[in-house]
Amino acid sequence: MRSPTYSPTVRRRRLGMQLRRMREAAGLTATEASDRSKIPRTTLGKIETAETQKVQSGHLDRLVELYKAPYEEAEALRQLARDAGDKGWWWRYRDVFGHGALPDFETEASLIKTYEVATIPGLLQTPEYAAGIFQAGNLTASEHIDRQVEARMRRREILHRHERPPQLWAVIDEAALRRPIGSPGVLAGQLDYLARIGQNANIHIQVLPFSAGAYSGIGSPFTILEFPEPLDPTIVYTDTVTGGQFEEAPEDVEQYVVTFGHVQGTAASTVRSAQIIEGIREESTHGTDT
Questions:
Q1: 189 secondary structure, DSSP code
Q2: Strands 111-116 and 222-226, how do they pair?
Q3: Is residue 108 a contact partner of residue 10, using CB atoms and an 8 Å limit?
Q4: Which of 27, 102, 188, 244 is least surrounded by Cβ atoms within 10 Å, i.e. has the fewest?
Q5: Which of 65-74, 229-238, 281-290 bottoms out in mean pLDDT, i.e. has the lowest?
């Protein structure tokens, strides 16, 4: 069975949000809706906040009947529930991504804004560069490193798909472009890939040169994901030592959006950034020749 090209988690969030709006439009509190539908209050709350992995068809039928949803709207909600129950390709790599996987959201995002300080963004890494990162410290078995690299390369596929590839806007600190990763030549290959991939219409790369000095957001990498559906709110992903964390509160998301705007405005233009990348690539190439 082929994995879906949409995000089950995004669909589940959308379903919960629509059901909550329908309840509010019907003038019902969560307790009243729970009493009338005979669905436990805690279960209804988890459905509306997308905390449940699957919405039972019987529960959904009772809710659309209670909210007097028109036939077409009810069928659309049932399809959302079916989609939300699917599993994406990343499910097979849950040992790599963990729960709440970033690819689950990347696959349906229409715009991805990422800011990186120490390394090249994951969506723009070469296999050799990614392997160099995972090999750092020799804390992971080689078999698992291969699996991590494979999973990361699968993530890149969204940028090259024929149907609605997302726009990627990456702001990369110059430090990441100069940090040696892996064996000699790996960095040069990575920079060469960046120069080529940056020519794609849906990929925009800006470099924050050392000459920019201190700037807003320095030292705190993050990724903002925006979605085409108005019902799907923008979210932010931040990396931690033990795994990733998502920020969904509107006020927190807004702070990251403002910070990215500042970082983007401080960075060199895409044209100038391409020149900077080429210059550093030539330096790294000459370094491997000596």
A1: H
A2: antiparallel
A3: yes
A4: 27
A5: 281-290
